[in-house]
Amino acid sequence: MHLAAALSAACLLLAGPEPVKPGPKEKCPVCGMFVARYPDWVAGIRFQDGSRALFDGAKDLFKLLLRVEDYGAVSRRADVASIFVTDYYALAPVDARAAWFVVGSDVLGPMGHELVPFAREAEAREFLRDHRGKQVLRFAEVTPALLKALDGGGP
């Protein structure tokens, strides 16, 4: 019985986050856009209480995560249970903390310049070359200054 439970848990970890389909009236808490209109860019946070916040791209997800107090979505970062982004090629959700993000490419998201997420580093590096990206970053390397620069607010 313990072996079966361990195998089941391992399969869930390998499968990654489950797909999320936004409701037709579900809005990004950062920009107010309807998330369902941009299914290829959906990013999200699941909170400890079971609620969720969905975003029209990784950039807005990071804006909320890095300044949660500005958006009223969660009182403490500890309330976050999981975070996902949609892999650009696979169009499948991946754990944002394990993802690779390409910055400065010629591909625009719903809100303009975007952090383009990938589950695998090799695909991120290939995309970087093919789409004139500037750099590949990990989750912890995304900063408020970078987000501001993506919005045209400086370096």
Structure description:
With 155 residues, this protein is α+β, with helices and mostly antiparallel strands. It has one domain (2-150). It has 5 helices and 9 strands, in the order αββααββββββαβα. It has helices at 2-15, 58-66, 68-71, 121-130, 144-150; strands at 43-47, 52-55, 80-86, 93-95, 100-103, 108-109, 112-113, 116-118, 135-138. Strands 2-1-3-4 form a 4-stranded antiparallel sheet. β3 and β4 (93-95) form a beta hairpin. The longest helix is centred in the first third of the chain and has 14 residues, at 2-15. The N and C termini lie far apart (55 Å). Residues 1-16 have low confidence and may be disordered.
Rg over CA atoms, rounded to whole Å, is 16 Å
Residue ranges: pLDDT <50 for 5 or more in a row? 1-16
Q: Count the helices. How many? A: 5
Count of all domains: 1
Approximate strand percentage: 15-25%
Instruction: Summarize the amount of helix as a percent range.
Output: 25-40%
User: Order of SSEs, N→C?
Assistant: HEEHHEEEEEEHEH
Main sheet overview: 4 strands, antiparallel
- Total strand count, please? 9
Q: Within the largest sheet, what's the order of strands?
A: 2-1-3-4
N-to-C CA distance: 55 Å
Note the overall shape.
Answer: globular
- Helix/strand class: alpha+beta
Residue-averaged pLDDT? 85
